[in-house]
Amino acid sequence: MFSADVGADAAANAAANAAANAAADAAANAVANADVAAANSVVAHAAANAATNAAANVAADAALNAAADAAADAAADAAANAAADAAANAAADATANAAADADAIAVSFAAANAAANAAANAAAVVAADSCR
Q1: How far apart are CA 49 and CA 47, in angstroms?
Q2: pLDDT tens-place string over residues 45-96
Q3: Within 10 A of 31 (CB to CB), how many other CB atoms are there?
Q4: Best exposed site among 2, 6, 82, 95 by fewest CB in 10 Å?
Q5: Residue 1: DSSP 8-state
C-alpha cells in the first residue's frame, strides 16, 4: 500500500512537473514570438520609412531639376530677347543714320544748286548789261 502511494505521488509529481514545464515553455515561446514580431515590425517600419524617404528625395530632385530647367529657359529667353532688341536697335539706328545722311546730301545739293543758279543768273545779268 505504501509503495502504491509513493508511485501515485511520483506519477502526480511527474504530471504536475510536465504541466508546469509545458506552461513555462508556452510562456517562453509566446515571449519569443512577441519579440520576433516586434523586431519584424521595426524592420518593416524602417523599410517603409526608407522607401518613403527615397520617394521624397526623387520628388525633391525632380522639383529642383524642373526649377533649374525653368531658370535656364528664362535666362536663354532673356538673352535671345536682348540680342533681338540689340539687333533691332542697331538696324533702326542704321536706318535713321542713312536717312539723316540722305537728307544732308539733299540739302547740300540744294544749296549747291541754289548757288549755281545764283551765279548763272548773276552772269546772265552781267552779260545782258554788257550787251546793251
Answers
A1: 5
A2: 999 999 999 999 999 999 999 999 999 999 999 999 999 999 999 999 999 9
A3: 10
A4: 2
A5: -
